[in-house]
Amino acid sequence: xxxxxFFGEHQAGITTPVQDHLHFAAFDLVDGAARDDxxxxxxxxxxxxxxxxxxxxxxxxxxxxxxxEAPPDDTGEALGLPASSLTVTFGLGPDVFxxxxxxxxxxxxxxxxxxxxxxxxLGDDLDPLGTGGDLxxxxxxxxxxxxxxxxxxxxxxxxxxxxxxxAQLGFGRTSRTDAAQATPRNLFGFKDGTANILASDGDxxxxxxxxxxxxPAWLAGGSYLVARRIRQTIESWDRLRLSEQERTIGRDKRxxxxxxxxxxxTAPDFSATDDRGRAxxxxxxxxxxxxxxxxxxxxxxxRGYNFxxxxxxxxSLEAGLFFLxxxxxxxxxxxxxxxxxxxxxxxxxxxxxxGVWAVPPGARDGSFVGEALF
Length: 374
Ligand code: HEM
Description:
Distance between the termini: 35 Å
Radius of gyration: 21 Å
Number of strands: 9
Strand content: 15-25%
Bound molecules: protoporphyrin IX containing FE
Mean pLDDT: 96
Shape: globular
Structural class: alpha+beta
Helix content: 10-25%
Low-confidence stretches: none
């Protein structure tokens, strides 16, 4: 647990070693918000985030240093807590550039052609109220209270300019971005994040995660974030035989090795067959269909979290994976998600929420995230 600088070449929270907890929120700018409101909001958010990520209150007077006659600037629940590796990552959705045919903030000419609402996929069951959003904020920390404090205070700062459209708490990271991190497990009990793009993989990040010369210029060094709220029907999964679970994923459950053998990090051999001539790694297994070899070399940086949001009234846990991936273009996610339409795993999944945002590069000290857009 430490301090991750808010300012830098890229926004923190992408290649940063994945923290244990997430609070994610999608915001809508209020009706009538003007271009200046959007600019001032991004300024105020960046300033507050640069302080909170150092373990400080949102302003210098903060929770208890201001006038006793006024509500405090900071809500106070993180007083005394360390920075806890907090990162705050901001993104801008397609509607910022055009909504219902209206270019609300005179930004239409700056729109990245790749920033379009995601197409619908087979099996989507999206809740419109849990989908989309003009802006997104991903707060990750090793202490859940610190992540919640960040979203709560950013939401308070946004008052009158933007408000929360939907939000998601996550626990138990399902990915790793640092070679030193052990691979965690998702709610199906499998290691998740084995074949991820790591912070140390400079070529992988350059080719698959950071927006390059294709631009637009304001987004160079940034990325695109895709979020998918995926319900996992853990009750039916839990009734599957172990061998069937492993066939579905394409990896063994204990070690995380692919079913063609080796250890967790051995590359899969999709041509390997058993003594009856059947593919060891099922052609419809998740790992095979999601693998770059099945998708023209496409890769994603995954950074998702588990969630359990109470129960669903039919005696089942409302459990799942809040899938987050960063990529140089949303097209990468679309390619993989389309390939997964025949995935054996899809029988146990339901996508109920979704969003895509352009994630600007990092800001310099004294500047703010998204400044180059205006
Ligand atoms: C790999 C689980 C959804 C893309 C994996 C692995 C597991 C897993 C256990 C193998 C370990 C690893 O390399 O991380 C799940 C579960 C999901 C889910 C439980 C839903 C609840 C998705 C979605 C996508 C995706 C929606 C993208 C559209 C990938 C990719 C890999 C992977 C790209 C790495 C493939 C490779 O290079 O070997 N997933 N996944 N997954 N998954 Fe998923």
